Amino acid sequence: MDRPAAPDHPVTSRLTRRQRRRVSQGLQYALFVAVLVLIAVSADWGRLQNQFAQKDLALRLFPEIITTALRNTVVYTTSGFLLGLVLGLVIAMMRLSSVAPYRWVASVYIELFRGLPALLIFIFVGVAVPLAFPGTEIPGGTYGKVAIGLGLVAAAYMAETIRAGIQAVPKGQMEAARSLGFSHARAMVSVVIPQAFRIVIPPLTNELVLLFKDSSLVLFLGVTLSERELTKFGRDLASQTANSTPILVAGLCYLLVTVPLSFVVRRLEARADKAV
Questions:
Q1: Neighbour count for residue 112 (Cβ, 10 Å)
Q2: Burial level of 131, CB count in 10 A (0-12/13-18/19+)?
Q3: I need a labelling partner for 160 at 20 to 30 A (CA). Which of 43, 57, 119, 168 fits?
């Protein structure tokens, strides 16, 4: 009896591109589910619940984690953001100035504070400055130190963002303002800068999210109980109770703020893309 003739092409070569993509996706979904099942089977759920999800311990954190820790985190972030915004605007204008020394100073500032770790800036403000100038106190105590630390770092990034926004405004806007009799400074303040800020709102909001997380560096300055922010609060309670539930709750409080802000950033970016 004659053997059947072998096919001219492998079976896989007869699949269309769409079929091969579906097979590939099916294999990836199967791998994903297999990993999840492996994690679910191998995890020690009882130990995880005991370490990260003790309901009674979590409830004991309230309302102080909101009224003190979250409030301080928001205050630190807001003060640092406002200082960084004002300083960043000044540096951006210096960066665009026709006066060369202004541009040099702005460039050095941006490269310096973007190149150094934020933690080093905090230590410089909180430790090095008091040691270098004995008897000198930064106004506002810890709140002032955090505002300056966050503001100095944020200003370097915001300056470049604002500069890019100003340069994105069509030059015709400045020329139209000047033709109406506006001075250069008034045209910048009344026409160009407001339009630039409309352009850079999404990246500035993203910078606000980053500052909210960077505010956790305040724990390296040494703070009182009433000055603790979320990370310091969660760390202290975790050490006292030998349990990680306070850290998990502190993390959830961060997400209460950062997730909505990230959603706002995506909406603003989508709206900006549609306007182009």
A1: 12
A2: exposed
A3: 119
108 contacts 93 by C-beta, under 8 angstroms: no
**pLDDT tens-digit series, residues 64-74:** 999 999 999 99
Tell me the pLDDT band of 198, cut-offs 50, 70 and 90: confident
- 245-275 and 230-241 helices cross at what angle (nearest 10)? 160
Torsion of CA 53, 54, 59, 63, to 10 degrees: -60
Question: Measured in Å, how far apart are the chain's first and last C-alpha atoms?
Answer: 72
pTM of the model: 0.84
